[in-house]
Amino acid sequence: MTSKFSQDLDQNPGNHQPLTPLGLLDRAADVYPDRIAVIHGERRHTWAEYAQRCRRLARALIGAGIRRGDTVAILAANIPEMLEAQFGVPLSGAVINSINIRLDAPAIAFILQHSETRLLLVDQQFADVARQAVKLSGLQLDVVDIRAADVPDAEPVGVIEYESFLAQAPTDVALRYPEDEWDAIALNYTSGTTGNPKGVVYHHRGAYLNALGTTLYARLNAGTPVYLWTLPLFHCNGWCYAWALAAVGGTSVCLRKVVPDEIYAAIRQYGVTHFCGAPAVLSALVMGKPKDWVRPETPIWVACAGASPPVTVIAQTEALGFEVLHVYGMTEAHGVNTTCVVQDAWAAMGDDERLRRMGRQGVRTAVAGDMIVADPSTLQPVARDGKTIGEVLFRGNLGMKGYLKNAEATREVFHGGWMHSGDLAVMHEDGYIEIKDRSKDIIISGGENVSSIEVEEVLFTHPAVFQAAVVAVPDEKWGEVPCAVLELHPPYVGTLTADDIIQFCRARLPGFKTPKHVIFEPIVRTATGKLQKFKLRDHVAEIIAKREH
Amino acid sequence: MTSKFSQDLDQNPGNHQPLTPLGLLDRAADVYPDRIAVIHGERRHTWAEYAQRCRRLARALIGAGIRRGDTVAILAANIPEMLEAQFGVPLSGAVINSINIRLDAPAIAFILQHSETRLLLVDQQFADVARQAVKLSGLQLDVVDIRAADVPDAEPVGVIEYESFLAQAPTDVALRYPEDEWDAIALNYTSGTTGNPKGVVYHHRGAYLNALGTTLYARLNAGTPVYLWTLPLFHCNGWCYAWALAAVGGTSVCLRKVVPDEIYAAIRQYGVTHFCGAPAVLSALVMGKPKDWVRPETPIWVACAGASPPVTVIAQTEALGFEVLHVYGMTEAHGVNTTCVVQDAWAAMGDDERLRRMGRQGVRTAVAGDMIVADPSTLQPVARDGKTIGEVLFRGNLGMKGYLKNAEATREVFHGGWMHSGDLAVMHEDGYIEIKDRSKDIIISGGENVSSIEVEEVLFTHPAVFQAAVVAVPDEKWGEVPCAVLELHPPYVGTLTADDIIQFCRARLPGFKTPKHVIFEPIVRTATGKLQKFKLRDHVAEIIAKREH
């Protein structure tokens, strides 16, 4: 840039302010003061009230000695206080650490220690595990108990209850907006699919941009959205939806238990327009459809992620009056980074092809920057042929700051100037990506890559198969071969042999992709619902070794 | 921020890239390659083609010796090449200077000189004025002529035609994305309402954020928007809509002549969903309604700015099937900064009250940061009483870098850490602002502030009044008094006296706001349609002085 366009044209407070989602709360309270921001059972908060409660929480935290850059953790279901913490904790200058409610006490204790949590907010539903975790952590923690009318009373973990804590907030302290948009706003621990939990650090800039991007792809700006909290707020801060809803003055409907009855009840009672969930949530909705369900005139928008929704699940969900959008992202990148944008031309392709295309991970969002599928070492993009496998890499403003206190893992994930997703995918001719495997879960058999996901997809088309996981086992001849671990639907248990399954696959897959071993047993998942294939691999290898000797 | 959330958590290319609207073009070309991006008469470009033409323009400019930070100007109507320049010029590393086509040769020459323009793109409709301006400027300029099928041939100004220029673009040069989001992207000269033209410098960060903000408030993300270019692209780069449309893969319908017949024809032919314009455009649409106009099922969205749309104009426009949103902003802040968000509760208030509220300037957009109405010296916000007048001040990321080569004016407009709009407004109880005057146009009579706009609004309710302008004239007793300059509708000319008008106002306004003088004569506006009240004041003062002596 030559001098004339930079001379005497500096940044100043009038033309440059830190990007942050926190300002969206102030705007929502100003523009939509009387609109309902939060619904939980009989409870209602307008945006003015919600903002006031968030600010009170921030001031209470400051009053309790929380300083800029401290960690404040919360262990809670999707209740109003969890929504308040998404703004209230950062407004105190602290970093919000939303802990997975499905973890056990030792895992929570590890997170409290590693994050150096100064204060913990506990939903009384999780009082017991929180008490154990705090004890195990050995930390001198301040604990604030959140009492709720919809769960049984529990013995308090700390010495003060949430409402009393808010009530004692000083009124004369200033809220702490970020000094720089690169300041941390949130901390999210990911178990990943391998190794120890890592603390993913979010920045205000990324959180703000993803909030804006979310309003765009989810069309939250059409009318007043009513968003149902099926997606846990401890996953990527609810994919940034709490912040996105502030940008449009939308309504949050809290949900303690993500079960079909409660979801359908909320949809009917509050006119839900949007929600998010894993394919399992969609399947549950299909199975749990009320007898008197009437397909809504305007489809209810639902974003689906975590795994590719099977074609039949999309079709059945659509038939109920839901509009499904498949999205993909990762904890390390503020949540959603791609959406499977539905092209007009797909409508003419027939349902099979249309639904198959809708199951892909898709294209980058307007705020996600660049995305390539590439060789992770050379960074050379793969051909757009729907066949060549590479790693999904991102470069833009949604990448996390890095892993807390883990410079090595941070360097590794960003090596070569791209954020490495660890997911292997192909790029189709139309520029849409389709995930084929986790990079560490690919099976290399006779020098050929075998996508465990591709084999699982074939297994899922067998009517007897309820759950399926495919992993590599060592093989003298081929190096590795695929092994299928299967849980059958109850009526089928004991009616099928390993050979039946192998025959079934052989008819549908090339030989090198066909499982050589089949094991019938329950599939164990982590608290976040993830399959840890590195563990399953070891387990399966032992079984096979025993069988063969 | 304590160390743990900043240590080893630095920015790197994987998590931090300059914000810029230029990446939105790449994404649109990837995601919507076959959608129509540009329509002009028989001409069509898909997003893939549009992107390719923009890139070719950028490479042609680089091939012609344009360097980072050079100025490339364009003098063109809203034709496809004007849209191409919005991306193509910045992709060459240059700053785009879109020149007002209504200016005369000396004014254009001034802009060419002041901006140090290196290359000028000229729509042949403006060949004559461009030729004169280049000559007057004394600059050795490269000129590229844009030939168009829809205007008469003109003698070329330069030595190469646009299509030949594109054809000679080198293929082996890299496009120049910004090195920093604070780099300049555009230059827009504003005549303002006082003094000399000033060069407003836009930054990539602000352009990107306003593009995202625009998709939100204009709901460009619902389906495929078809945007009609009634708003000149030389006003704030078309309020950033060319960039916003890339974020959603929308369609631009070009329009050389903004007249009702052409607007209605485009609406019918292309299914226009969105456009923008001054209240005069709305009035023209009401007057020029085709006899066989059928109110569309889905209202056509129209943003209106430049002056507050009168209640009757909003009502009539709505009745034709348009949804009107009043927006407000300024060249100095990347275009639109506030929108008059329509509240659900207004529907129950009756049309008079609802339409009156819709005519206010409203509330800040989601990307506009903070806005206050305050005493410009003390920066103390005024009461939310709808009465106390203060200046509209902004603080956020939409403020320009500043005025080119005018450090003093830049310092002045940003003094106290806020961007001073120069507009005087009140803040209503509901947080909506309403502009009352330009700060330099307020009339101070007997120590009381008189808003010239308020008096004009009363005058407009008189059936005979076609145009009205109220300015201060010196008065021995009161310091200043209001003087009304009026253009009457033809049938009324000669039927009314100054006293008739004064009586009419006295019945509707307090004495100190009632005009003491009335002059019947045509009202002169600038090329941008602005009324330069400082000139009118001098002119009126002379007339009054002559009358009184």
UniProtKB/TrEMBL annotation, chains A, B:
PROSITE patterns (alphabetical): AMP_BINDING
Source organism superkingdom: Bacteria
Pfam family for this entry, one: AMP-binding_C
Segments forming domain AMP-binding enzyme C-terminal: 454-530
Biased composition (Polar residues): 1-18
Region named Disordered: 1-20
Keyword terms: Fatty acid metabolism, Ligase, Lipid metabolism
Keyword Ligase applies: yes
InterPro entries, alphabetized: AMP-bd_C, AMP-bd_C_sf, AMP-binding_CS, AMP-dep_synth/lig_dom, ANL_N_sf
Domain AMP-dependent synthetase/ligase, residue spans: 25-404
Similarity comment: Belongs to the ATP-dependent AMP-binding enzyme family.
The name this protein goes by in its record: AMP-binding protein
Organism: Ottowia pentelensis
